[in-house]
Amino acid sequence: KPEMLCATFTPRGSPTPAIIMGEVVQMHFTTVDYVIFTVLLVASAGIGLFYAFSGGRQRTTQEFLMADRSMSCLPVSLSLLATFQSAVAILGAPSEVYTFGTQYWFLGCSYFLGLLIPAHVFIPVFYRLRLSSTYEYLELRFNKMVRICGTVTFIFQMDHHMAILVALDTGHVAVGGLKAVIWTDVFQTVVMFAGQLAVIVVGSSQAGGIGEVWRKAVNGSRIAGLDLNPDPLERHTFWTLGVGGIFLMLALYGVNQAQVQRYLSSRTEREAVMSCYVVFPCQQIVLCLGCLMGLVMFARYGEDSPLKKGYVKTNDQMVLYFVMDVFRDLPGLPGLFVACLFSGALSTISSAFNSLATVTMEDLIKPHFPSMTEAKATLLSKGLALAYGLVCLAMAYIASIMGSVLQAAFSIFGMVGGPLLGLFCLGMFFPWANSIGAMVGLVAGLAMAFWIGIGSFVMRISAPTPVPLLNTSALPLFDNITSTVMTAVVSTTTAKPTGVEALYSLSYMWYSAHNSTTVVVVGLIVSLLTGPMKEKELTPGTVYPVLGTLLFFLPERYKEKLCCVTPLAHKVTSYSYS
Predict the structure, then answer these.
(1) Which tops the pLDDT comparison, 482 or 498?
(2) How far apart are CA 74 and CA 266, in angstroms?
(3) Strand partners, 10
(4) Buried b (16+ CB within 10 A) or exposed e, 520-532
(5) Which H or E run includes 245?
(6) Residue 13 DSSP label
(7) Structural domain containing residue 169
(8) Is 199 within the bounds of a domain?
(9) Burial class for 536, CB neighbours closer than 10 Å (0-12, 13-18, 19+)
(10) Where are the bilayer-spanning segments (predicted)?
(11) How far does CA 256 lie from the centroid of its chain?
(12) Which of 91-95, 396-400, 436-440, 543-547 has the lowest mean pLDDT?
């Protein structure tokens, strides 16, 4: 958010500043901070320039958009990590844990299936089809209209997501291509880890050690127990995070163009699959670092937060205020952390710009201009990346009214990424689904998503601010019986929303699951009513044979009607382009 940085830099060298309640504390860099910050950002830009001008590279769209399909496992996995987790994790996770406790950590449980399914289902299908755009799959499976609708939906999703993380990162993407983006992501991931570790080490040391941090967190009710409340209206429980989070991860790591484009840039299918396995422990580390930073923040400020004192305007700004406060007498480290923050945002944005340029070129432009030369197509791709950067800059203001960085980012991916996930699942897992069902299902999913999302936003801004933390979060870990009883007692004292308000109160972590399910259910019903697709009409390689295994008990004639007989499964698993 544009005002965030200026809202968190304050004069160095003085004790806690005397500020009138409600005014924003101003903090400033020292010369050393500016030098470190500038050097790290110049290094990021230098990677893009290197790949733009070294050895005459980036002469074809294949090189610019797909890194010439030459990347190894490690840089791809680190780029996958940086693409969507970094900036959200740096700002959102610590403020979430500081305010609500460590319940958010259970999101890590969703990473298992959230990465295992893409590795063994989505990646093999996409890689063997030798796609450049994920949405090429939709044309192969359904028709061109479904592909265009999927592309437009993705562009809408990414433009709004980038408005949350917008920064001046357009230049090196516009000239360096995907290879520059991936290697820049690797560099920025290292910077991100260094910045977070520096904050945690120095902050916990100033608080009296990690043991003291934990003691204060326990006493302050910030160590959450295992909340097994199945109510989908609860913002964060084990089920919303651990199960609802799986669908969010599938929308991110399974079918999102920015991620799939990285898989497809791998040298081999095996390296693409391995990148999912490598990114898993890295994700857990990022999650733990974010949660630990939030606990260190609480150990420093307790309930007397900078937000309550009026030093900052939002929860997200507290992280930067905390960093400048901790590093007050350590010149250079504030510059490192802010560079860490920028690195996280830039890696996300650069990935998005490149993927937006890819889908626009492959899905919307090339089909209408098949005779366009490679030189013109490559130049146009670079121009598209630049144009999308300018569009996202213009939309940045919208992000300032969407709530916290964490919830805003996940809500957008649930609202728009959820229906896209449903569209791909409909085509990949249900052979009888036809193009009419796909179109109607996507429209129904998007309509449901925006109905709930907009209704939730309107209800939230008109409602009083909720109590940040339930008393049950202070309970010992895994003390389920007591936790259940206490949760029931608390629930009886608060009025539960009913009717349409209950739908608007659905936890944002369920958005992706709810909206993708809507697409699949509506798509299947419409397909059956309009005439299911025949087996001979399917493009080989576009269906994953999961139903043939799950419905093994059905007679062969029913399997044949559902297009899930064994011969089809064989063709799907063995087919690939030469």
Answers:
(1) 498
(2) 10
(3) 27
(4) bebbbebbeeeeb
(5) helix 244-253
(6) S
(7) 69-462+499-539
(8) yes
(9) exposed
(10) 34-53, 73-92, 104-127, 148-168, 236-255, 276-299, 336-359, 379-399, 405-429, 436-459, 508-529
(11) 9
(12) 396-400
Give the Cα separation of 410 and 507 in Å (integer).
11
Nearest alpha carbon to residue 257 among 186, 182, 157: 157
Name the H helices within 267-373. 269-301, 306-309, 315-326, 333-359
CB distance 258 to 352 below 8 Å: yes
Within 10 angstroms of residue 3's Cβ, the number of other Cβ atoms is: 12
The pLDDT score that the predictor gives to residue 141 is 93
Q: What is the mean pLDDT of residues 399-414?
A: 61
> Would residue 79 count as lying in a domain?
yes
Q: How many domains does the chain have?
A: 1
State the Cα–Cα distance between residues 247 and 114, nearest whole angstrom. 7
Residue-wise pLDDT for 61-78, tens only, equals 566 556 667 677 888 888
Strands annotated E in 171-268: none
Tokens standing for residue 194 = 């260094």
For 427, the token pair is 């085509």
In our burial notation (b when 16+ CB lie closer than 10 A, e otherwise), range 24-46 reads bbebebeeebeebbeebbeebbe
Give the model's pLDDT for residue 168.
38
DSSP SS3 for 232 = coil
Q: How far is CA 166 from CA 191, 321, 531, 549, in A?
A: 19, 20, 45, 45
Q: Residue 409 maps to which CATH number? A: 1.20.1730.10
Grade residue 307 by pLDDT with cuts at 50, 70 and 90.
confident
Q: Are 382 and 174 spatial neighbours (Cβ–Cβ below 8 Å)?
A: yes
CA distance 386 to 95: 32
Query: In this structure, is residue 488 part of a structural domain?
Result: no
Cβ–Cβ under 8 Å, residues 566 and 480: no
- Rounded to 10 degrees, the C-alpha dihedral 89/93/94/97 comes to -160
pTM recorded for the entire structure: 0.76
C-alpha distances out from residue 392 to 88, 96, 104, 224, 260, Å: 17, 26, 29, 37, 22
Q: Is 402 exposed, middle or buried (0-12, 13-18, 19+ CB in 10 A)?
A: middle
Q: Sort 462 into a burial class: Cβ within 10 Å, 0-12 / 13-18 / 19+.
A: exposed
Can you give the C-alpha Rg of the chain in angstroms? 24
Helices 435-462 and 144-165, interaxial angle, to 10°?
20
Q: Which residue has the tokens 């990590």?
A: 81
Q: Flag whether 241 is in a domain.
A: yes
Q: Which amino acid is at 58?
A: Q
Distance of CA 349 to the CA centre of its chain: 12
Kindly state the tokens that stand for 527: 């397909």
> What's the Cα-to-Cα distance from 216 to each of 207, 223, 443, rounded to whole Å?
10, 10, 49
Distance from the first to the final alpha carbon of the chain = 46
Indicate the residue type of 476.
Answer: P
∠ Cα 459 87 203 (to 5°): 105
Q: Kindly report the number of other CB atoms within 10 A of residue 427's CB atom.
A: 28
